[in-house]
Write a structure and sequence with these properties.
Blueprint: E1 4-6, H1 11-21, E2 26-27, H2 42-58, E3 65-75, E4 78-80, H3 86-96, E5 100-111, E6 117-128, H4 133-141, E7 162-166, H5 169-173, H6 177-186
Parallel strand pairs: 1-2, 1-3
Antiparallel strand pairs: 3-4, 3-5, 5-6, 6-7
Helix pairs in contact: 3-4
C-alpha cells in the first residue's frame, strides 16, 4: 500500500481514517496556523485551511498521499470553531440551541507522486434540539465541548443535543468518510483490500 499521511492532530480524524484504511497511515501534524480571512466565505476558508495544512506537511515527505481537513460549524452567519473556555462553550451552545446549523469540512487530498490534488468541502445540516440552561451547563461541565467545533460532539454525549442531520454523519465528527473513500479509491488506495 502507498504511504498515506494524515495531517491532523485530531484523535477523531485518526479514528475515522482507520475505519477506512486500517492503521496503514502515519500522522504528521501541520504547523500551519489557521487565521480568519475576511475576504473568504466559510466554504472557501475551510478549503483554504485544509490546503495549507496539506502543503505544510507535504514539505516533510517525498512521496505519498497527504490528507488534511478543517471543520467548522456555521450558524446565523457566524463561524463557530472550537471553544477555548467553558464560558465560550456555553455561549456557543446557547447560540445554536433549537437551530439548524451547518457542519462544514474543508478537505484536501494531495497525491505527491502524481501531483493530483483534490480540495473541496462537504456540508451537513445539523438540527439542534432546544436546550435548557441546565442541559447546557451540565454538558459544558462534562468538558466534552471544549475541543469540538460548535461546542458539541455528535459522536459523544452531545448526540442527545442533535435532533437530526441531513448529510454525512462523519463530516460532523470531522472527516467526511463517504467523499474521502471515493477520492482515495480514485487515487489507487483500495478501501476494501483487506475484506
Amino acid at each position: 500500500m502507498r504511504k498515506v499521511v494524515l495531517a491532523s492532530a485530531s484523535p477523531r480524524r485518526k479514528e475515522l481514517l482507520s475505519k477506512l484504511i486500517g492503521n496503514n497511515f502515519e500522522v504528521c501534524v501541520s504547523s500551519y496556523e489557521e487565521t480568519p480571512l475576511q475576504e473568504m466565505n466559510v466554504e472557501e476558508l475551510v478549503v483554504f485551511h485544509s490546503l495549507e495544512k496539506a502543503k505544510d506537511v507535504a514539505l516533510r515527505f517525498d512521496s505519498g498521499i497527504i490528507i488534511s481537513a478543517d471543520t467548522v460549524v456555521f450558524c446565523d452567519g457566524a463561524i463557530l470553531g472550537k471553544p477555548h473556555t467553558l464560558n465560550n462553550a456555553k455561549e456557543m451552545l446557547e447560540n445554536i440551541s433549537g437551530k439548524s446549523v451547518l457542519a462544514i469540512t474543508g478537505m484536501t487530498i494531495l497525491d505527491m507522486d502524481s501531483g493530483k490534488c483534490v480540495s473541496e468541502y462537504v456540508s451537513t445540516d445539523v438540527n439542534m434540539k432546544q436546550m435548557s440552561s441546565d442541559e447546557i451547563a451540565s454538558y459544558v461541565n462534562s468538558g466534552e465541548p471544549l475541543d469540538k467545533a460548535g461546542a458539541f460532539a455528535i459522536q459523544g454525549k452531545g448526540a442527545v443535543l442533535v435532533e437530526s442531520i441531513n448529510g454525512d454523519f462523519f463530516n460532523v465528527v470531522g472527516l467526511p468518510l463517504f467523499r474521502l473513500g471515493t477520492i482515495l479509491e480514485e487515487m489507487g488506495i483500495s478501501i476494501f483490500d483487506d475484506c
